[in-house]
Amino acid sequence: MKKIFLIFIASSVAFASCKKQLDVKNPNEPTPEASTNEQGIVSLAQGGIYVNGFKDLKYGDGVFGLYWSGAMGFHEMLGDVIGAEAANSFENQIGCPDKVTLDNGTTVILNPNNPNKWYTFHRTVNQNDQQGSNFIFYEWAYSYNTIAAANKVLAILPEVSFSGNAATKLATMKAWCHFWKAYAYGRLGSIFYAGIINNDASGKTNGNYVTKEALIVESNAQYDLAVADLGAATSTADYNAVIGKLIPSFCQVGKGLPPTTAMWIRNISTLKARNILVNKTVASMTAGDWSSILGLTNAGLLAGDYIFTGRTTSTGDFLPASGATVSSRVQSSAPGGGGFKLSERWVQDFKAGDLRYTNNVKTGSTWIGNSDRGNAFNTRFTLWNGGNGVAGTYVYANTAPGAFELPLTGTYEENALMKAEALINQSQIDPGLALIDAVRTYMGAGLAPVSGTGLTLAQAKEELRRERRIALAFRGLSFYDARRLKISEPVSLGGGRTGCIVIPTTGVVNTNATIEYGYLDYWDVPDNELAYNPAAAGSAPTKNPKQ
Amino acid sequence: MLILCINTGWAQTTEVTGKVADANGLPIPNASVKEKGTKNGVSASSTGVFSIKVKNNATLVISAIGFETLEVAATANVSVTLTADIRGLSEVVVTGTGAATSKRKLAIAVESISADKLPAAPTASIDQALVGKIAGAQISSVNGNPGQPTNILLRGINTLRSGTFPMILLDGLEVKATDFNSLDVNSIERIEVIQGAAAATMYGAQGANGVIQLFSKKGRNGKLNIDISSSISQNSLLNVGDVHKAFNHSLVTDANNNVVNSAGVPLTFDPDLSHYANNVVWNSLDPTNSNVKQYNKNLQYYDHNKMFFQNAYTYNNSVSINGSRDRLDFNFTGSDTRQESIFKGNGKYSRSNFISNIGVEPIKNLKIRAVTQLVYTKSSLLDETGRTIIYALNNSRPFANYDYRSPDGNYGAYFGDAVGVNGYNPNYQNQYGHPDDQKIDIVQSFSANYKFLKFFEADVKYGINYQNQDITYRIDAQDNNLNADYWQYWLEYYSPRYSAGAPALATESGEINRQVYKTTFQNFLPSLTVRLDAEKDFGIKLPIKSTTYGAFDYRKNISTAFLAYGVDAPSFTPFTMSNMSTYKIVTDTKTPFVTYGYVVDQKFDYGELGGISGGFRTDYSSAFGRGSKPFTFPHFGAYLRVSSFNFWNGGSLGNIFPEFKLRSSYGKAGIQPGAFDRYITLNTNSMGDNVAFVFKTTNPNPDLSVEVSRETEIGADLVIKGFKGNWFSNFNLSGTYWDKQTDNAIWPTDAAPSTGTGSIIDNAFGLSANGLQISLNTSAYTSKNVKWNFTVNFSRQTSEITFVKDKPVVLISNAGSSGYVLEAGKKIGQLFGYFMLHAVDEINPATGDYYIPKANQGDFAVASNGWVVYSKPSDPNYKQPYVTPNQYSFGDPNPKFNMSFINEVNISSWIAIGMQWDWVYRSHLYNQTKEWMYRDGIHGDYDNQITINNETGAWTAFYRGVYAQVSRNGTKNYFYENAGFGRLRNLSLAVDLAKFVNVNGIRKIQLVFTGRNIATITNYTGMDPEISSGAYNSAWDRGVDHNSVPNIKSYQVGLNLGF
Fold first, then answer.
1. First to last CA, chain A
2. 3-state secondary structure (DSSP) of residue B73
3. pTM of the model
4. What SS3 class is residue A176?
5. Pairs across A and B, CB distance < 8 A
6. How far apart are CA B257 and CA B254, in angstroms?
7. Nearest CA to CA, how far is B1044 from chain A (Å)?
8. Interface of A with B in 465-524 (CB under 8 A)
9. ipTM over 0.90
10. How far is residue B863's CA from residue B742's CA, in Å, rounded to a whole number?
């Protein structure tokens, strides 16, 4: 009897004294302290960019949630490279033009959605209560994820002691952070009407919205910081040791091998040129702009340079083997079979005889989508998966793990075409065309050279337009071109495109249709941000004044 | 009342025979007959007859459930009449009270039900049997697929994040690892339910959702008893709203009514690729398009429900052996239930339970008991919830012949966009997918109870509850399936794919997934009760009794999860995951959780008149902010038995109301945060040969508090003497009103995206709830041969959000697609979406403005079906409905009240009839199933003609417009339907043939015929108004029907034998 009583008392006391048991920790995940050593900070700098910046977000479903297929896919929709039928996140409406006039000039197909004007659509959807259905949230949030991650890594760096040439390693790490911040600010400033400069590592933000131009200035400033850091990375071995770890091993293939500091600096130069080029209409470019671009592209990427790339893995570490890139979501057995539909307007921009067409564009029976979803995305084409067997010619889509090389930032092609554009616009037509030829050769297009063929300025510009459209497709750059050529603008603002191939629901191939896209050039600040971070007094306008 | 026939004839020991009957002379079967002060006892037979050997001058204690216990002298031949316990207060309950307490001396509401009142649900699970049985509770059967749990909402919503599921106790110890519906209904003697914080405060930081306590069957006194029961039931899916696909279509056809592609060529089925290569053309928004064409040419109509639904059978068997002798009692029960899926080829579900309950009394006043329940559950259900199958079928146009096999014998996965982009063939999944889900549960408890020094009762309980679930999901190689290869549409499970229609690559060559989940839960509960009686123990002439209860309660839970997959199988068979070309461990986690607390409760009773009680519980938990800070949960209660005062008891009031008790109590109880909600960590992400660190999207919060619910309940128990004669001889009425607040409900609050953070877990919401529960029981009719007992249970409750720290939160149902909003001042879990209107001049109550500006109202009219549509033929939206551009709350989907009407009729002791009707009044469901079926013109509504502008037709522009206007598949009030219903839950007839088959040793030969869910009255247009597709037991996601499997209608035949 007494024994039982004693056991009862003793056991109570024993358990009561086990307060220590309460601190169960989280045995599954590292604490932030794990990132304060060399290996840890490199892991954090890698995950902060590749995962926080491109993959993990609060919202998102399987159809549009990833940066490289979703957020960049929206650019390709607005650039009329792809279309979509699924209505997730209003995806089918993103690239739905306001109006299509068919060949006969009288049959007008209006956007069948309600609201049926893109401006209204954008503002209806840009509400906080649309949460993840607000498609413009994705690029914003991913970009700030990148910036916040880089800020935090930069803040931890002083606590980390590096082995070897610590100064080089520290400089490399800093360059990495500034580079990706610059990239993110550049993306933000190239699509949003205003934004926030947030270089606070504490996880706070501020309500001082700045103009898109100021975001580009910040982008360039961060690029400059990265260049300065790279200049301080004097020990090649220690630089390589760090960059070789920052870039995921499976991406270190082909062009994705770790760049030297010089290659990286050239990449930055290309991206700074992009910052200028994509943010002005072609018509408003000044001679000064063209010479800036020429200067930057002269210092930009070379054909043999290593760049930052993404590769898929069968385990989906960074990019899942399927659905992770825009083009992988286009490829299919037959037209219309993929989640993204290949635009007739993109296919029509191939020059006859282009081997990239032969190797990539698969023709099939006309796919007609849901008649009330859009009026321009029916198509006869899709992409071959892995190419159509033309050796030495670029392949747009390949879903075999690791087979497709996705450029994440600048490329030689982009640099060369920007340089070509600057030359052509500075009346150096042939040297410009020569660069176009070089890009075509680089991609195995098999087209006859156009330099030296006596093209007029207008013809040269058209040659350039088509080449940019074909060479740089599926990389989140297409809308920039549509915008700066004013194709995406309402007709009243000088926009639209004539001579389009359009297949309406009737299946009849129209070859001289006119499309009025009517897209807003820069998006308003997402309401998902403004709801929690209202604009402070003195902020730049957060809404594009175009109505 | 009491008739004693006293005979003489004394001896040292004597054999006493006798008979137990009720006031009408009907035998009381299975009444317990015990020799007072000993373990010696027997059970009366089915005819109420007993025989027992007792010492001379012994006293017999005779008891039976529902009757007042009686003590009589043991004479040679005893005939006993027991009085019905009309007050229902003789029962002793232990849940929420600390020390065992008679119901008449409780300050809290405790619902109790004995096992014999539970119906024979085909699932043989306790949760299904409890539906409608507990006044105040909303227990709903929300998915009819085998093994699916019920939604249990006791009192109000206390939390947004942690759901409504109550704590489950078995014989005093928590069962945390084992699923509630895995416990065997055959092993349970009785159930006690306490519903809110005021009662569950004894359980501290985890009791706010209430407690359901189960008590295992013990060995009965007397001889060895063997009970065998077997039943078989035939189950079919309910389809109350006659959900079917439109019999007609509105696709573009040629002159011969062949459905054609855009080139005008009739669609043909490709026999090798098992698909339609071309899409149909459907001018859905064309205002002239009417859904009146027949499937009578190149496309035929198939009834996919007939193709995939089947009558499923359920088999239940149970054997129980029990008895007791001297200082030992035992009960062994073995049960087995086997259920087929209602879908053809979707697999089976079975569960076997073995229970042993052994009690010994090695020395006087020391009782030791060990209860073991072993459960083995096996499932080969390919689609556990059945939702993906129903979704696939409901999104396939009816001309797909999914039973078609290609020349190489394979099923096609996807029949082309013509059939519908969201449709697929479940036969394909069945062909290639092979799940094997095995679960072992151990529920073991030991208890020792010792009474000593007259005042003290020490009790030590220890329980260990373990679950091991091991799932292997094998997917065969599919690379030879031409259809799947063409559409890149492979059955896959874990391999990383982000969208359907995108290739899973290696998956096509086979996949193995392995998931192993283990949970070990321990509960240690020593307690001490001190009972003092002022009169007896201290000689004080006051009828005061004191009960002091103190306990220490320690709980520890460790769960682990291990998930791995391998893809791309080798060419040989058999193979294991290690032979796959790619394999990966997806998850390898361990989740520890520790909590402990002290409970002190002091109670004083003043005779039979009343009593007060009070106490507190202090809890520590590994999940509380900063770890070491305890939370204290106080409680107080009082009761007054007004009917015990002389003025009442002796007067006319006492004659009419023999019992009237008032009670009230107050208490706090909590809900724990998640195990790691307070620990700031980094995520990891494998990155080739490296592991990347990743910032969390949802950030933990080190300062998180337990969610505390404060509740006050006030109640009364009243017995009303009924009429003389056979009808309504008494009424038992019990009612409780409760009111509660939760101040600090946890929710991940959104952060501005520019912080780089998604959300931060915080104590961010205030909630408030109140409700009323009433139970009325009456002996509706009593005669010599017929006894009809009638019970009505009523429950009304409402929960709302009082405070939101930040912006209202818009959420998407766990089922997908449907929107909810959590907003201050609104009921919890309101659907949120766009409005369609019933009048062109409808006014937005929030703003006082017209939804449609006055100037534009002329462009609209009300169609014959009552909805506002665009009515100008020149309008591109002509015949489509008007949909507001903004979103609003729809209202509270939860029912205004729910009631159950339970009838039990016994005729001549061998026939028993049971009937239960459940009534859920004005609950709402968002018919997301229908909205998806509107997408591709599939729903039967498309056949319904409507009139717009004097034009009558089955206008597709209207139906498709409902889906597509403003937001495709957007949440719209059109699909928000009244899902109130009345349901004949149970109808049973039991016939005991034992009295006709006079075989020695046979107590019972009972044949039972049961029908479940055999009639439903509702206006809801979906398959079943009771289902919910949200997360199980979600606090807010309770109002969506998104292709959930409806409940089953079942007819069951059972045989119960007793030896």
1. 87
2. strand
3. 0.92
4. helix
5. 331
6. 5
7. 21
8. 505-507
9. yes
10. 46
